[in-house]
Amino acid sequence: MRILPPVAALLVGVSAVSADPLPSWQETDTKTAIIDFVEAVTDPDSQDFVPRADRIAAFDNDGTLWSEQPAYFQLLYALDVLKDKAEADPDILSSDALKAANDGDMAGLMASGKDGLIELLNVSHSGLSVDDFMADSRDWLLSTNHPQTGIPFAQMTYQPMVELLRYLRDEGFETYIVSGGGVHFIRAVSDDAYGIPSQNVVGSEGTTVYDVVEGKGTLMKQGGVFFIDDKAGKPVGIDRYIGKRPVLAVGNSDGDFAMLEYATQGDGLRMGVLIHHTDAEREFAYDREGHIGVLDQGLDEAVDRGWLVVDMAKDWSRVWTGQQ
Amino acid sequence: MRILPPVAALLVGVSAVSADPLPSWQETDTKTAIIDFVEAVTDPDSQDFVPRADRIAAFDNDGTLWSEQPAYFQLLYALDVLKDKAEADPDILSSDALKAANDGDMAGLMASGKDGLIELLNVSHSGLSVDDFMADSRDWLLSTNHPQTGIPFAQMTYQPMVELLRYLRDEGFETYIVSGGGVHFIRAVSDDAYGIPSQNVVGSEGTTVYDVVEGKGTLMKQGGVFFIDDKAGKPVGIDRYIGKRPVLAVGNSDGDFAMLEYATQGDGLRMGVLIHHTDAEREFAYDREGHIGVLDQGLDEAVDRGWLVVDMAKDWSRVWTGQQ
Hints:
The structure is a homodimer of 324-residue chains.
Chain A: H1 6-19, H2 29-42, E1 56-59, H3 73-88, H4 96-102, H5 106-111, H6 113-124, E2 126-129, H7 130-143, H8 159-170, E3 174-182, H9 183-194, E4 201-204, E5 208-213, E6 216-222, H10 233-241, E7 248-251, H11 257-264, E8 271-278, E9 285-286, H12 297-305, E10 308-311, H13 312-315
Parallel strand pairs in A: 1-3, 1-7, 3-4, 7-8, 8-10
Antiparallel strand pairs in A: 2-6, 5-6, 8-9
Helix pairs in contact in A: 3-6, 4-6, 7-9, 10-11
Keywords (chains A, B): Hydrolase, Signal
Organism (chains A, B): Paracoccus onchidii
GO molecular function (chains A, B): hydrolase activity
């Protein structure tokens, strides 16, 4: 063992503290496993070294980078937009699904199935430009408080994950969001919230058309469903936007299963991570059952597939970026 | 005028030569206009300064970054694949369009219209994995010579444009291809040919599906038409992949009109560039008429819209990256 003189030891001490890339992660095996992986693929002398151009990391958003309870934030946004619109023009409530949504009757909305949700999206996410939609979404995310925590939605991002994203970028990774949520909704805040620019956000999409409006070329949202970036759609979205198989994929539900499978079956060292919502006290506890963020197959197969399961209650010293 | 001592003069001379970012461009007003634009948007003291994150440059591919005569290279590839397949199994020639294509009867193929082309694409671009398709495309592009020049297709990239792409990246731009061509076909060589990685290639697409093949998650090409990244589709593709309005857009045909319009109507200093094929001696001369790369509306409106028209014969001292 090498003995360091006091000043050098102090410097090492300071350096070690300030160098902790994941201060909101507890000192558990989970944190060690993540850091070991990153060090292995970034060390040029390691047999697991991955060139910078191939260091692609893909993150789900809802339930992985920010909360998704009591419902996806984008759904809560859609409901607010619907209520505003219905106040000005009650005739837009042209179906049972929209009436239920406007009354806050979630069971009634869910009973209408996918068609009802698409109706809601069409009313709340179309007939305006992409720029206007993003400005409105951004305003809502920054200024509306979560019903249970009182924290603005845009601050219900997970501090440990924001640290992980930054750590990966510092180590030469390109970080991507690959979400079932709408691409424009996420982009409205992704740069500020996560340091992820618009071109690194892969998501679901309605139809967008280019039109010359009052002499100016404008992208207009027209509703409908162009692409669902969920389940087997996630590897397809990754191929479309990125064209490379990620070396690291992080999700929290069975909607991310295909993405983790795709990423971890590539050649060389790979890592798949599932965020397990175990923290009823600080956040929400849910997994195998429910309507949102169901994690069932993932829990069954994580061990066999060598995926890391993050136990939010045990592995995180802090949950949200925003303070309660 | 400042008098430099001989050694310093020599160094300045060397520096000036090696610092020319566009050595294959003639010293014309066109070159000056491009450099003036780049200097204006990258100078922090300029009123036209654009932050690095917004320095998005979008380039068409066929006819802008590489040649497109006597036909799009991807079409020539599809015909070669069809011939190979038909030799092994003549039954695949199940329509007049495919028979014409196999016989090299381009008029017959064109007579079948869009449906015939889609049939050809379906036979040549489906039923294999994305990885296998890209490996095959790459091999073809690297090893097949152009019928007129004898240069391998992958080297029929324009040297002045390769220099422009590099210059822009050196100045903090993010360079993108936004092409009507197929995204997988272009990605097969885009990094080597242009220094453009797969995630910066926006293109047209058939249907891709994720499937577990022999236990391994695989992306399979299934043919069909999922998205056409041409004309008004180009701004839509830009929004989907990039989510930012480019400050510079470069094309060569009316298929690029909407992209140039969209880019140049943004706030602040913008630049639209059209490559005009004027060089019958060294390349090909064509514009307002024909089946490929028609440039008609663009020529009519370029002056009024302030777009720069590059005269290949006058503005370029060299054409292809590969040597004839």
